[in-house]
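Chain X:
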Amino acid sequence: MRTKFDRQLEELNVELIKMGALCERAIRRAVDQLEDTQDAEKELVDGIEEEINQKEREIETLCMKLLLQQQPVAGDLRQISSALKMISDMERIGDQAQDIADMSRFVQVKELAHKIHIGEMAEAAIKMVTESIDSFVKKDLEAAAKVVEYDDVVDNLFLKVKQELPNMMKKDAQQAEYYIDLIMIAKYLERIGDHAENIAQWVEYSITGKHEADRG
């Protein structure tokens, strides 16, 4: 019975990795749209977001089977309950990547995206998502803690965007609404970083039994 349970836990890890990879693709494709507004690209982001939603449902079903059929002990129970929390954050990451893709279609000052750290924010957010999932699979507490700390990098890049764009808007007031769109895109990336941080905190809980909220 335990061997079957271990196989199902390994299946859970594999499915989480797949969902994390979909989130990474969605973020990257969404930011790519700042350079390319072709409808095909828009549809691709839509498709990835739908795959993320489907993967969330599949993982939920697997977790319910593990909970109801296998009667997991405390450590296993934390692992399964943490996975359920993590996929909720990953689903939100997919939603926000879709929001970025939608807004990118209307941003008319695309050449500015590279000048205001949007690309850097996307890479930092992707790094956080990848490493948070990896830390869960490897049960690596130190790696999860590093993801939590790395959220400061995304936050600092967002602050730079907020500081730089007002000056640009003053110099080019006719494009003001598009600069505001870029701020919103940066905000979505900052939120993605927050969700990746949440995932890492649930990894910490799955290993230690303690969650950031419990520390007051």
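Chain Y:
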Amino acid sequence: MDKLKAMYHLCCIAEAGSFSGAAKAANVPVSAVSRSIQALESELGAALLKRSTRHVALTEIGRIYLNESKDILAAIERAEGRVGSYQNAPSGVLRISALPHYGEFRMLPLLQEFQSRYPQIVIDLELSNRPADLQRDGIDIAIRGGSEPDGRVIAQRLEDNTHRLCASASYIAQYGMPQTIAELSHHRALLYRSPSQILHWHVERQGTWQRVDISTAQISNSFRVIRQALLTDQGVAMLPSWSVEEEIADGRLCWVPLPEILSIAASHPASSVYMLYQQPQYTVPKIKVAVDFFKKYLS
């Protein structure tokens, strides 16, 4: 039995004073109203109505049940109204988990524009390197780097994350431009430390990855710290283009071209930054507008 429909029919009977009037109000046959009330009374084990040939009245327990039914039906109507308005205007808390350096350099400058467009969305931004389980952690969108994730989530590629060797123009003027991997032994490295390890540099030779012979000047888990060390001529570093694009453009930093492939890990050097989200969640307005916005401005 459809209990909500039976509650609605009971409300119609109380309003109209008859089964025929209730059937007309509900736009159903009289027999349908009669069957739903009979089924409701049978399930409750109580008579809700007093019936006569001329009149239908509520019993005492019927009046109590009617009042509760009205409250329930009104709550459902309010909830449906909220869903409707929610779908029309994106709103609610949007949970985003992003790589700390990518979040700082690429996402933070965009958040003011996003929130001016969608003022009813509250951004809950977590900057973290830890792997994100969207469903378990209640995350709407995650920004992660590396190879393309598995097919359990939608992975929208945002941009290249391949790390390249760079130095300041003044450093190159002072110490010279390295021409080969071997010449890096005369320079000092600014190394990035991930949550699990220091990312030493490797070069591919004869199908295997070998660690590069270079002394270390500084180690940090912050791209901002490494970038500052670069600008003060403390060494050379491996960084993705998006983290130093302003300094490369104005000439303060420059790329160091080498004939061999250099990587920050003993693996294939190609990597990207991905925006991860669950396909069913894309229908939620706040997630849809966020995915479309970041795809437009970061891809």
